[in-house]
Amino acid sequence: MAYNGSVKRASQTSSIATASPLGILCFSSTTLIFSVVNMFLFGIRHPHIVVGMAIGAGGLVELLAGMWEFARGNAFGGTIVLASYSAFWLSFAAILIPGTGIAAGYEGNMEELFAALGVYLAPWCILTYIFMDISWRRGDKLYAAMFASLLCTYSLATAGKFVEFMTGIMMTAVGGGFGVITSIIGFYIGYKELLAADQVALHPKRD
Fold first, then answer.
1. Residue 93 DSSP SS3
2. Which of 32, 76, 122, 140 can pair with 135 through a Cys bridge, CB separation 3.0 to 4.6 Å?
């Protein structure tokens, strides 16, 4: 998923078109919608609208993009990052879908539900920190910035599940603000990678 010339380098060894821009743009779109909901903007109070995007764009399309990148040899960006966050969106959607019975299992006990959601979100904080650190070490500053912002989103949402209700709501809303920042950076990365991929397609290197 790294932009720093990776699209051009990969194209020299693979005839398969890059799917990284598709994956990151779907990730950014889903994150933006979810963050708007968390911030209670436009009078939206319930996360149900996220389910469709979480299954379709954030889940299925992101997973396909990750597998496509895997075929191109992009293990970190494609297989690990894109596929990992597709797993997050699919599993999160499963929690929100009534038919799964996951949320219903905590009916009548909101305190336990919030604690369970905090436990669910905690590993994603760890995973996002790992991605941020690796991106920084690889010299992918834009990705490192995106993951840093996403880490703030996850961390605030996680912590918000273990504190008093109204305080948790405020922390989640602030985390939503970082989610908006994350999506903006992601849109920019996807735009840059799509431009780079298009240039490679129009002007392929000849031996």
1. helix
2. 140
Q: What are phi and psi of 124, to 5 degrees?
A: -70, -25
Of 173, 193, 176, the closest CA to residue 32 belongs to 176
Going 45 to 46 to 51 to 54, the CA torsion angle's sign is positive
Please compute Rg for the chain using Cα positions: 18
C-alpha 198/C-alpha 30 separation (Å) is: 24
Rounded mean pLDDT of 143-160? Answer: 95
Which residues of 13-107 form beta strands (DSSP E)? none
First to last CA, the chain: 26
Across the range 137-158, mean pLDDT stands at 94
Phi/psi at 147 (5° precision)? -70, -35
Establish how many alpha carbons lie within 13 A of residue 55's alpha carbon, considering only the half-sphere containing its beta carbon. 9
Burial label, 75 (beta-carbon count in 10 A; 0-12, 13-18, 19+): exposed
What is the value of pTM for the model shown?
0.85
CB 3 within 8 A of CB 140: yes
Burial 84-106 (b: 16+ CB within 10 A, else e): bbbbbbbebbbbbeeeeebeeee
